[in-house]
Amino acid sequence: xxxxxxxxxxxxxxxxxxxxxxxxRDPYRIWVSEIMLQQTQVATVIPYYERFMARFxxxxxxxxxxxxxxxxxxxxxxxxxxxxxxxRAARRIMERHGGIFPRSFDDxxxxxxxxxxxxxxxxxxxxxxxxxxxxxxxxxxxxRVFAVDGWPGDKTVESRLWRLSESLLPETGIETYTQAxxxxxxxxxxxxxxxxxxxxxxxxxxxxxxNRTASLPAPRPRKALPERSATLMVIRHGxxxxxxxxxxxxxxxxxxxxxxxxxxxxxxxLRLTGQVPASIEELQGFTHTFTHxxxxxxxxxxxxxxxxxxxxxxxxVWMDHxxxxxxxxxxxxxxxxxKLPA
Length: 342
Description:
The protein is α+β, with helices and mostly antiparallel strands. It has helices spanning 3-14, 27-36, 42-55, 59-64, 67-74, 81-96, 105-109, 116-127, 136-145, 155-167, 174-188, 206-209, 265-273, 321-325, 331-338, and strands at 227-237, 240-245, 256-257, 260-261, 279-282, 286-289, 294-303, 316-320.
């Protein structure tokens, strides 16, 4: 039995069949799921996906929304550029494709936030198009089964994996085969403690035969993460907290965040609110790790007395504490606000 036949047979009997985006040929639903699943596990994605689809059931609804509405629905899922790109792509689909999700691979891959593998997956699931995928799960499966040395992010290694992925495509049943590759990597050929005894490819797996499943695929070459620090000001007046919109692109781009103090926090508060804080309290600091650096965050609680006018600085707003928790804010900011008394 061929590689693809073994996978397809396994998928029919043991794969995942009841995820909320399955059993649909709607390219919009498939597209949203594929973007959310980038660098995020299925269990985490499901509730976000269901809320997102209830709020934005089609391309037109997504395109008509504001970026803030989209990011509010996305808040907590991380990698916020994905949400911004979904929004940009929806508007492009409305402008250039008459509101209909494109069918051409070149048109799909030309949309913001969609790369070669994601475009191929959308094409396979929505249109039955026979194209190879190479997401993180597939890289791991191929690197182990065929004992491909080297870090998959290296261009030479990546090219070899693409050639392998293309050479293994079945002539028919691309949807089941593509889902099988994804499911095998997500549930059986996992990064840690792969369940080799349950793998349909165990007899063919060179990594298993050579006792190299722990070392393949090779990890990204280690580099010390740069360290950065930031002082975030929780400026409060009664139940209200002052939020600022982060510039896009960039870290937390387009989200509401806490103003950052660069130097004298009292002076920064005066500039933003026209008042010197009545008190400044240092809250417990913590570290938040991004993909490319580690950020040490020191929160300061600045309390204002007396009458406060509406926020006049561009991109700032006073928001009720409860409303702020439900706004499009990053996880670390939400963690800070959740610890404050309501």
